[in-house]
């Protein structure tokens, strides 16, 4: 109970001002039956939305403790689920770049600012790339007890929870096999990396693997750079999660499909790392150095 209370306090600090927390309202987060007969629901008087405070404007400087943020933007967004108007700040670029990880994450940019890659509604708890848009099932998902608990679950870093919650909404939109689900879960893993939460990062990567495999079963792909691009990502997801046999199998499968020298070298690197039981993060540059291709060659997800 102490851990749950701590998680709830963290959520309040992230989403609500002191005035909002102390203002009387008709909401509750509990296991008690509410007036509509449902259990564990969150209800608030949406007839009192917050007013917009400004138009979108550029911002720069230090954000969330990260120095050297070159460009960010704030805007007042209306939540498509509950109608609450809130200020959203999105980091666009940090001006730092030191290479790209094998899973497509650009180093430097975004590290420590991932909480600003996703919108957060302080009213209903909706999380999405843009809270101004919502699938038909969003309101129902956001109201689920499992969703509410995930928002305050201390077992996972706070920012990672936001991405997993966004993935839950995307999954419930009638298309669980979608690129959006894969991307949200992959970003959740990166957020866990930033927080130093190894176990949670592995869990998020395993979720990403399942979402990527579902995407393939539906006849779709996440990356289109090369026929083997998704297999290179699968190999990295497995390897970083400690599933070395699966990583090796994914790399071999990708090698049979690879069209370019770059991706062949990339998959050979993944295979070699798996054989060495190496679960650390590595850069594209390690493959590029041996591939005989231009360093500017990048795959989807690069900054």
Overview of the molecule:
This protein is α+β, with helices and mostly antiparallel strands. The chain has helices at residues 2-15, 18-22, 138-142, 145-151, 158-171, 179-195, 198-217, 229-240, 244-255, 261-275, 285-291, and strands at residues 57-63, 66-78, 85-93, 97-100, 106-108, 119-120, 127-128. It contains 11 helices and 7 strands. 42% of the residues lie in helices and 13% in strands. The chain has one domain (2-222). The longest helix has 20 residues, at 198-217. Strands 1-2-3 form a 3-stranded antiparallel β-sheet, with no helix packed on it. Helix 6 (179-195) packs antiparallel against helix 7 and helix 9 (244-255) packs antiparallel against helix 10. It is elongated.
Secondary structure: elements and pairs:
Elements: H1 2-15, H2 18-22, E1 57-63, E2 66-78, E3 85-93, E4 97-100, E5 106-108, E6 119-120, E7 127-128, H3 138-142, H4 145-151, H5 158-171, H6 179-195, H7 198-217, H8 229-240, H9 244-255, H10 261-275, H11 285-291
Antiparallel strand pairs: 1-2, 2-3, 4-5, 6-7
Helix pairs in contact: 5-6, 6-7, 7-8, 8-9, 8-10, 9-10, 10-11
